[in-house]
Structure formats: structure tokens, C-alpha cells
Design goal:
alpha+beta, 9 helices, 31% helix
């Protein structure tokens, strides 16, 4: 397949469980054609096919790869890009047209689901910024050393459970806000604290903790000051509050003032060492991962992805 330097390779990831996917893609396609953008596109069959299709686009020589999808699809895309050599990766520019159940990384830059025309105009201008990725190093149940990269955050504990519930409930509730409220109510039936031992900068935290968020970006509201271009992680450690404080925390979370809660302890660091997190689930970019076995480390890798941003 002959590909020129300006041709886009587009990976369309339909929202599973939503019926308007065809009409949405038709709107995107109409806008691409109106802007005279030269492109080829492939469609993912399921979440497991994203990395394979991104790899195919890379191998076929596309230098602009646009993901029509959400945070999980972007996560798969950057992990695929990090598997190739640096020289090849530096020639590739990654863009997004938000179309997922969760689109928080796109929202950070100002891309909106219902502003397809504006998004495509911005992508067409091809403004590139080098961005950081977070990285989690861990061992799996077979004792093998593994790692995975993330754009938004790693969650450890209760919020990982909520994010998983939120992803599932939004499939049938549709609304981002309703799904989070419903997930929060379901949280009452979940375990609320976990025995943890963390090393962050010079601090050692050894106590019961409700949740930890290590954010390369805004961390779904838990690390609201984090940015993916300063070479640092923002970390929020939340101790177990009283029930009344829990609802206060939920209110502050919705209002974007999460760090104001008395149970939230913020840090800024290059590395988080999790020596113990008994029975705590771990989520990465809003999706549960196979829970690491034993200690694991969260770090940041500076300026490794070329990302297309708005003006």
C-alpha cells in the first residue's frame, strides 16, 4: 500500500452498546471529505483488536494516526507506539477524535464529542506537542516482569472499582454524570479501605488507605493540576474518611475541588513505589488491569509521543 506523508490512517472504534455508531461515523466521514483530507480507515472489531490495527497502520507507513475512540483505545495506541523503535516513533503523530465511553484525555486538550468539525479542523492544522507517559512496572501471577504505559492515571483501591463500575454503567445509562453517581452509590457495598505501604519522595506511608491516584494528566478529577508535559506525576492519597466526609468528598470531586478535602493528601513526584496494597484493584486509564502481584512502581517517561493538539 503506497502511503504519502500527509495521508491519515484512521482507526474507528465504535462504542459498544450504542446504536448511533453508524450515523456518527458518517458525520465524521462527511467532515473529513469536506476538508479534503486524504485518509484510509479501519474499524476495530473489539477492544482486543486496537493494538493489532494500530500496528498494522504503523507497518503500512502512516505518519498521522488518528484514533476515533476513548481513553482505552488511546491507551492501547500509545502502548503499541512504545513497542517500536524511537526513530520510527518520532516520525508518527497521534491524534484523537473522542468517541469513547470515557474521553478525559481528549477533554484535557479541549476536544469535545459533539464538536467533530472543530476537532477535525484542529487536527488538520497539525500542531504537535511532545507529551509524557506514565509507566507501571510490575510482576504478573507467573512472576514475569511486565510494564504498561498510561496517559491519564493509575488508580489503586476504591476508585479503580468505581471507574470499572462507571464504565459498565455508562453503557446502559448513557450519561457520564449519571453513571458516576450510580457507581458512587454502588460503592457503599464495596470495601472502603486497604492496607498499603507507599514510598513517595521522602515519605513512607504505611496505613489503611481508601484510594491512590498517580496522574500523568488530570486523573479523572483526582489529580486536577497534573499535566502530561512537565516530567512529573501528581499523586493523591486518600485516607479513609468518615461517612459524612465521604459524601463531602463526592461533592468536591464533582465540583472539581477534590484536593480541598481533608482526607486527600497530594504529592508531586517522579516515582511512586507501592510496596504493599492488599486486595486493592488496580486500574489504568479507567480500565481494570490484571492486578500486579507483589510490589510495583509507577514512574513517568518524558516527551515520548507526538500528540496533535488544538491551537
Amino acid at each position: 500500500m503506497a502511503v504519502n506523508d500527509t495521508q491519515w490512517g484512521i482507526l474507528y472504534c465504535p462504542k459498544s452498546g450504542f446504536s448511533y455508531g453508524k450515523s456518527r461515523w458518517e458525520r465524521i466521514e462527511k467532515c473529513l471529505q469536506a476538508n479534503q483530507i486524504d485518509y484510509d480507515y479501519v474499524q476495530s472489531e473489539n477492544t482486543g483488536s486496537v493494538e493489532r490495527l494500530v500496528k498494522m497502520l504503523i507497518n503500512n507507513g502512516y505518519r498521522t494516526i488518528v484514533i476515533v475512540g476513548g481513553d482505552s483505545a488511546l491507551n492501547d495506541a500509545v502502548n503499541c507506539l512504545m513497542q517500536i523503535d524511537q526513530e520510527t516513533r518520532n516520525r508518527i503523530h497521534l491524534g484523537v477524535i473522542p468517541n469513547g465511553v470515557m474521553n478525559d484525555f481528549a477533554h484535557f486538550w479541549g476536544f469535545k464529542e459533539n464538536e467533530i468539525e472543530q476537532t477535525i479542523l484542529w487536527l488538520k492544522k497539525h500542531r504537535v506537542r511532545k507529551i509524557d507517559l506514565g509507566r507501571i512496572n510490575y510482576y504478573n501471577k507467573h512472576g514475569e516482569a511486565c510494564h504498561r504505559y498510561f496517559l491519564n492515571c493509575v488508580n489503586i483501591g476504591l476508585i479503580a472499582t468505581i471507574m470499572n463500575l462507571r464504565r459498565k454503567t455508562r453503557h446502559f445509562l448513557g450519561s457520564r454524570t449519571l453513571s458516576f453517581i450510580f457507581s458512587f452509590l454502588l460503592m457503599i457495598f464495596q470495601r472502603l479501605d486497604y492496607k498499603m505501604k507507599l514510598k513517595i519522595n521522602s515519605d513512607v506511608i504505611k496505613r489503611k488507605v481508601m484510594t491512590v491516584c498517580a496522574g500523568n494528566c488530570q486523573g479523572y478529577g483526582q489529580t486536577p493540576n497534573a499535566v502530561p508535559y512537565n516530567g512529573l506525576l501528581d499523586v493523591s492519597v486518600v485516607y479513609h474518611p468518615e461517612m459524612t466526609q465521604l459524601f463531602e468528598g463526592f461533592y468536591l470531586f464533582v465540583k472539581g475541588k477534590f484536593l480541598n478535602h481533608r482526607s486527600v493528601h497530594p504529592y508531586r513526584t517522579k516515582e511512586v513505589m507501592v510496596e504493599e496494597a492488599q486486595h486493592a484493584l488496580v486500574g489504568i486509564d479507567g480500565r481494570l488491569m490484571n492486578t500486579p502481584v507483589g510490589p510495583f512502581k509507577v514512574t513517568v517517561v518524558q516527551e515520548v509521543i507526538n500528540f496533535l493538539i488544538p491551537e
